[in-house]
Backbone:
């Protein structure tokens, strides 16, 4: 069946920080760009970021992009690509300044410059002492940034398709990407967006876990679409567990609390991070802090009746600092933990927060995949930026604040790459005759399905499986049985049934289509985790306790077809700086 | 727990109706949104918007026992049964609890909600004192959930002409920003019997704002500036 078609120079899927930084670049260049988003742009998950944007502005004392680069590489447990990390850290100050010029309401110092707070894993002089590098707007940095970017896009007349869900990637026989199919949620109509360039900025898939800081919309749509179109997913075994999710609720409490001087206590009132990370203490990187907390709980030193959480103490900061720097946290703690942090500590547990892996790209935001003997062959017409992409700047563990930096730097860079590509490749290539068929088959399957399981049940089983089999600590038997279980859940996901068949704003259908994407990510995660026989960053295995640079200093690539794995080397060659050779990681 | 929820699907319903739900909650279901997710797990046709589930994205605004609020930060324990849920008042209903927010966003866009400054920016950040920055507190935190504008009778009567509390709060956010140079254009644009002056300070907006913001105060400050430039 032929679908109605719209033609654009470029289509961007996702209107969070990365998507809107990229769209701004394209709209201001006068190109015809469509931005598709499942939600109104300011509802994208960037809005929930709290602590800040990492950039070596040096407003609070000496700093340099090279130190930021070192911290990021060390934080990544040496799995990050050093060319991409150099690019990130060198471009970061400019990205922040630009955002300030757009009107971002940053907090200020007495001299009127942007205020910066300390954050986990960020240091002066290659690990000597904590540095203040996180540029923030109280503890609402993501909200302020997302609204600022939306406002700037309003100024640039960017064309948004709000509450449109992209369904599938369109590739021609040569593999070139020619756009997407997408469903207008209000009407249920499916259209083809025929584009000369396609950019994914669809965010992460943190909703594969039961306990997650992530929004409901974080369902890995870009990853599902890419995987179904034959593109591999990189380093999917690496998931960040944020140390401080509110126990029971999962809602995020920023690392900025510890940046401003808060710290973690076990049930004995001991500041236990001093034992695990003598120099950086509570500001060690997130994988280290989360593992320390999980160890304390496992060894019986958790707080509360069930000894199942850790306490985050900040009352000693005083009402003034909390009201000025952490007002949102106080609001969240009161609402979701029933405590006022001005008086009492907040109960917290490590909670799934961020996907380090994603669609493989280079530092220009071009999607790359192995072809003709080159592991990094550019997929023509296809770009990705932000959490859905793997450049890889975060490697095996992301540093706090680097996600917002990533959105700004790679949103802009991928936008520039699209502009270059459009100049060199005028005109639309013809769509394949079957361009919309796959999406229509998926829709028809859902509409016609009888006797299937509910999306809720299958989704719950997926989340339970991931939570139990692929958490902070990973065990060989659990990983193996987890792979079998998640593959069985994936089979069930093929037969989900929705009772609601309405065309009008059918959110049951949206959730079923989202599950199709989540399940690809869940399978990729468990298969990649089971195969990686070492402990690195956020991937911690009981049977292989050490990092193994001889055999495993390489990126995983998971292909949907046959759930096959491949690997490619880590790029240890920066753009201009000297290589930071892997060494023992301590904080 | 008992709920009465406004239902309307234009595909099959001739008119809207209220549907009763009696639902067994789990101890982990603490907020209204938790209950709605549970209801949806047994009746997948119930339609609503939701995303962050922590009160920062602004998706799940609705009318809860007669008062606008966000489902994700409304405690179940504080609600009287049966909990009556309706779409935000005054906007066209698309389906169930989902309203068409075009008019709301059109008004937000009408105030040119972006920093206007035509000078070539410096190489570094523009400087702003801490006191100047504090002027933006209570303004920039708006999440565009529309609880305020859809609780405002002036907005119900003239949604096409009155900017409404959310849009006016945003207008003052830029007027108050020392980096913005368009104050007089912004005031010119609002000097109109409808755009600004339909606000009669009844303060429903302040009452319902889930972020504790005060649009009425911002509107008062805009009016002050207008009076001041006339004298």
Residues:
């Amino acid at each position: 069946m032929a679908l109605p078609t719209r033609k654009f120079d470029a289509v961007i899927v996702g209107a969070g920080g990365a998507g809107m930084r990229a769209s701004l670049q394209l709209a201001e260049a006068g190109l015809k760009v469509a931005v598709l988003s499942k939600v109104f742009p300011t509802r994208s998950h960037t809005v929930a970021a709290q602590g800040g944007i990492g950039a070596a502005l040096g407003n609070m004392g000496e700093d340099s992009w090279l130190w930021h680069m070192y911290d990021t590489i060390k934080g990544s447990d040496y799995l990050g690509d050093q060319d991409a990390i150099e690019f990130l850290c060198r471009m970061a100050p400019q990205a922040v300044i630009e955002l300030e010029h757009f009107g971002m309401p940053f907090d200020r110092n007495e001299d009127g410059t942007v205020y910066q707070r300390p954050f986990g894993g960020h240091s002066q002089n290659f690990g000597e002492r904590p540095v203040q590098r996180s540029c923030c707007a109280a503890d609402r940095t993501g909200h302020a940034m997302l609204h600022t970017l939306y406002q700037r896009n309003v100024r640039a007349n960017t064309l948004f398709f709000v509450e449109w869900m992209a369904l599938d990637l369109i590739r021609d026989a040569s593999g070139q990407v020619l756009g997407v199919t997408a469903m207008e949620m209000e009407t249920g109509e499916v259209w083809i967006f025929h584009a000369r360039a396609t950019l994914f900025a669809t965010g992460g898939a943190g909703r594969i876990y039961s306990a997650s800081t992530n929004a409901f919309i974080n369902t890995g749509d870009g990853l599902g679409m890419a995987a179904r179109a034959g593109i591999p997913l990189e380093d999917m075994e690496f998931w960040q567990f944020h140390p401080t999710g509110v126990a029971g609720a999962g809602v995020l409490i920023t690392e900025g609390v510890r940046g401003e001087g808060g710290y973690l206590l076990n049930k004995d009132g001991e500041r236990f991070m001093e034992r695990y990370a003598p120099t950086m203490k509570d500001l060690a990187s997130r994988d280290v802090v989360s593992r320390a907390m999980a160890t304390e709980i496992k060894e019986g030193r958790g707080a509360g009746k069930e000894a199942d959480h850790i306490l985050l103490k900040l009352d000693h900061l005083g009402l003034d600092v909390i009201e000025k720097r952490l007002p949102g946290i106080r609001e969240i703690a009161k609402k979701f933990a029933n405590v006022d942090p001005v008086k009492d500590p907040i109960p917290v547990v490590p909670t799934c927060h961020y996907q380090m892996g994603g669609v493989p790209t280079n530092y220009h935001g071009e999607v790359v995949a192995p072809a003709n003997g080159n592991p990094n062959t550019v997929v023509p017409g296809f770009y990705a930026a932000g959490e859905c992409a793997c450049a890889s700047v975060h490697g095996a563990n992301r540093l706090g604040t680097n996600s917002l930096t990533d959105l700004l730097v790679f949103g802009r860079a991928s936008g520039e790459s699209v502009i270059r590509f459009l100049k060199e490749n005028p005109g639309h290539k013809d769509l394949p005759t079957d361009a919309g068929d796959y999406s229509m088959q998926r829709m028809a399957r859902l509409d016609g399905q009888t006797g299937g399981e509910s999306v809720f049940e299958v989704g719950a089983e997926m989340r339970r499986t991931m939570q139990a089999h692929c958490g902070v600590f990973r065990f060989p038997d659990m990983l193996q049985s987890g792979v079998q279980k998640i593959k069985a859940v994936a089979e069930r996901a093929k037969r989900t049934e929705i009772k609601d068949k309405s065309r009008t704003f059918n959110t049951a259908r949206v959730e079923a289509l989202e599950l199709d994407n989540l399940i690809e990510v869940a399978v990729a995660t468990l298969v990649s985790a089971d195969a990686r026989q070492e402990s690195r960053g956020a991937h911690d295995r009981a049977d292989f306790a050490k990092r193994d640079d001889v055999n495993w200093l390489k990126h995983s690539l998971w292909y949907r077809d046959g759930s096959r794995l491949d690997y490619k080397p880590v790029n240890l060659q920066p753009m201009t700086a000297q290589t930071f050779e892997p060494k023992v990681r301590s904080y | 727990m008992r709920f009465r929820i406004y239902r309307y699907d234009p595909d099959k319903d001739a008119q809207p109706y209220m549907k009763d739900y009696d639902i067994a909650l789990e101890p982990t279901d603490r907020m209204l949104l938790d209950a709605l997710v549970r209801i949806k797990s047994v009746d997948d046709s119930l339609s609503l918007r939701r995303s962050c589930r922590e009160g920062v994205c602004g998706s799940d605004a609705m009318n809860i026992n007669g008062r606008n609020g966000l489902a994700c930060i409304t405690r179940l324990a504080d609600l009287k049964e049966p909990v009556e849920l309706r779409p935000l008042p005054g906007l066209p209903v698309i389906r169930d609890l989902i309203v068409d927010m075009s008019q709301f966003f059109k008004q937000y866009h009408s105030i040119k909600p972006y920093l206007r400054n035509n000078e070539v920016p410096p190489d570094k950040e523009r400087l702003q004192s801490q006191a100047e920055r504090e002027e933006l507190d209570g303004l920039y935190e708006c999440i565009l959930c529309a609880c305020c504008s859809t609780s405002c009778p002036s907005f119900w009567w003239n949604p096409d002409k009155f900017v409404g509390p959310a849009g006016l709060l945003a207008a003052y956010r830029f007027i108050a920003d020392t980096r913005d140079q368009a104050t007089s254009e912004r005031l010119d644009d609002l000097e109109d019997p409808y755009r600004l002056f339909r606000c009669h300070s009844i303060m429903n907006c302040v009452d319902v704002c889930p972020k504790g913001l005060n649009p009425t105060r911002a509107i008062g400050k805009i009016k002050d500036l207008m009076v001041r430039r006339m004298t």
